[in-house]
């Protein structure tokens, strides 16, 4: 029973990771889908690590009782451990990358908010449009600089 649940979860985790690695999933799903998938898999790691521990404990006992199938059981347990380790490493690597992406995203959002506040302050302090052609020319240059700055974002 433990082996069956573990195998189903490993297959599901491997398929989810493979989907995340495909360029189609990355482009179409965005950070939100990737994040929820990795968060879920990361949470499930603990539960299924416990299940793997049970398989590792029961495996040698089964080998002793069923000597004719001992090598098959040993191979099965070794394969489960190998698959789990690979999946675990991939989930942890992706979770770390996702965490760094989220931090970077928050930095960018913070920088943008600071820029918006600063720009809003400058606009509020700016002189109203003038009727003097020379002043209008200076104001247009200032607004062009601001427009170029916005376009570069």
Q: Any guess at the CATH architecture?
A: Up-down Bundle
The rounded Rg comes to 29 Å
Find the CATH topology: Methane Monooxygenase Hydroxylase, Chain G, domain 1
Helix content: over 70%
Largest sheet: none
Q: How would you describe this structure to a colleague?
A:
The chain has 153 residues and is mostly helical. It has one domain: Methane Monooxygenase Hydroxylase, Chain G, domain 1 (Up-down Bundle), CATH 1.20.58. Helix content is 91%, strand content 0%. The protein has helices spanning 2-21, 23-65, 70-125, 133-152. It is rod-shaped and about 100 Å long. The two termini are 55 Å apart. The model has no long low-confidence stretch (mean pLDDT 85).
Key terms for this structure?
153 residues; mainly alpha; Methane Monooxygenase Hydroxylase, Chain G, domain 1; 4 helices; rod-shaped
Quick recap:
The protein has four helices and no strands. The protein has 153 residues and is mainly α.
